[in-house]
Automatic annotation (TrEMBL):
One of its GO terms (biological process) is glycolipid biosynthetic process. It comes from the Bacteria. SUPFAM superfamilies: UDP-Glycosyltransferase/glycogen phosphorylase (SSF53756). Keywords: Glycosyltransferase, Transferase. It comes from Falsibacillus albus. The keyword Transferase applies. This is Diacylglycerol glucosyltransferase N-terminal domain-containing protein. Belongs to the glycosyltransferase 28 family. GO terms for molecular function: hexosyltransferase activity. Residues 15-185 form the Diacylglycerol glucosyltransferase N-terminal domain. GO terms for cellular component: membrane.
Length: 381
């Protein structure tokens, strides 16, 4: 069985992390008959276009977040807007559908997994037009489902929560047995039983360095100048060398910059030693932190999906939003030194986790075993 996994863009993202997590889970089945291939579809179609689009996106969300936020709501929730811009994309959709059809013919997969909404949209259209019969799985990487994701003809859905499952059933008539509430996929190591004693929790982890820390750096500079930090901070700078250098120049032993970490095992160790995490409300990082039952603080969110994620998480009581107008370390201590607030948070996380009706491995095994029975009768496309 050949499994084709489709994120979008080359840059590091939650879509790639989810794709890698899916591959790692399937690899754990120790089934020599299952092979995997991860492909960025946009780079397959046109590498220079992928570089331009991803560069433009990063520049846009950084330099003009308000206009990107408006664009996201217009484009990603297009059912709510009969807009000329949305209609003008029809030609490009048809072009990429044609390229996707050729791509699937070349790859000849038995199962296709989408961790980004655009490949899902293209495959859904091909299936509705009877140009594709291979089974497709949607793997959602946010806490909501936007309108770009294909839904009507997609075979399986790994939903982030019960709310998303109910939406798929009510609005798109997706059969209940085709939906698995697994949560957003993360690496198995974050869910593994910890045999050795956990290390003493003695720092706050700060994540989000790849896209900058927004208004967080002035706070780090301020506590350095005051010299009376209540906590130690470990800052994940990702591939943002400029940020790493700026923090290093502070020469504050209580603020430790960390370069890009690509090992889930090393990240798991960092989570295990953290009192809490300060991050942006991206689906993958939040899901990892929730799997470790960490208190989560957010200071700002990127425009678009992170704004919507933040509303969902605040409504569920799963994160704490910091107020820049108040003392930030004081806000940390109000939560982290209050045993009742921590116990209440733990209860809310446990309640939220109880919404899941299958683990990632259980869902994938069920799908793979079910589809294998039909493999001999699957047509070439």
């Amino acid at each position: 069985m050949k499994v084709l996994v489709l994120p979008l863009f080359q840059m590091p993202s939650g879509h790639h992390q989810a794709a890698d997590a899916m591959i790692e889970v399937m690899s754990s089945f120790h089934d020599d008959d299952i092979t995997f291939k991860k492909v960025d579809f946009l780079s397959y179609c046109h590498p220079p276009l992928e570089r331009k689009v991803s560069g433009f996106y990063l520049h846009w969300i950084t330099e003009n977040p308000k206009t990107y936020s408006r664009f996201y709501k217009l484009f990603m929730f297009s059912r709510d807007h009969d807009h000329d811009f949305v209609q003008s994309l029809f030609f490009w959709n048809r072009y990429f559908e044609w390229r996707m059809e050729q791509f699937i013919l070349e790859e000849d997969p038995d199962l296709i997994i989408c961790t980004h909404c655009y490949p899902s949209k293209l495959l859904d259209s091909l299936k509705q037009r009877m140009k594709l019969s291979r089974p497709v799985i949607n793997v959602y990487t946010d806490f909501f489902i936007n309108d770009i994701w294909g839904k009507k003809a997609i075979d399986y859905h790994l939903a982030p929560n019960q709310q998303a499952k109910e939406q798929l059933m009510a609005e798109f008539q997706v059969p209940q047995e085709r939906i698995f509430v697994t949560g957003i996929p993360t690496f198995p190591v974050y869910h593994a039983h910890q045999a050795a004693p956990l290390p003493e929790k003695n720092y706050i982890l700060i994540a989000g360095g790849n896209s900058g820390l927004g208004n967080m750096f002035p706070f780090l500079k301020e506590i350095t100048e005051k010299g009376n930090s209540t906590f130690t901070y470990k800052v994940l700078c990702g591939k943002n060398r400029k940020l790493y250098n700026k923090i290093s120049e502070l020469q504050n032993p209580d603020i430790i910059p960390l370069s890009y970490i690509d090992s889930p095992e090393k990240m798991n160790d960092l989570y295990n030693g953290a009192l809490a995490i300060l991050t942006k409300p991206g689906g993958i990082t939040i899901s990892e932190a929730l799997s470790k039952a960490l208190p989560i603080f957010v200071l700002h969110s990127l425009p678009g999906q992170e704004e919507i994620n933040k509303r969902y998480l605040l409504n569920k009581g799963l994160i704490f939003e910091l107020d820049l107008k108040k003392n930030i370390e004081g806000q940390f201590t109000q939560i982290l030194f209050d045993s009742k607030k921590l116990a209440d948070l733990k209860s809310r996380i446990e309640l939220w986790n109880s919404e899941k009706d299958a683990s990632l491995s259980e869902a994938l095994l069920s799908i793979i075993h079910g589809e294998r029975a039909y493999l001999p009768s699957i047509s070439p496309v």
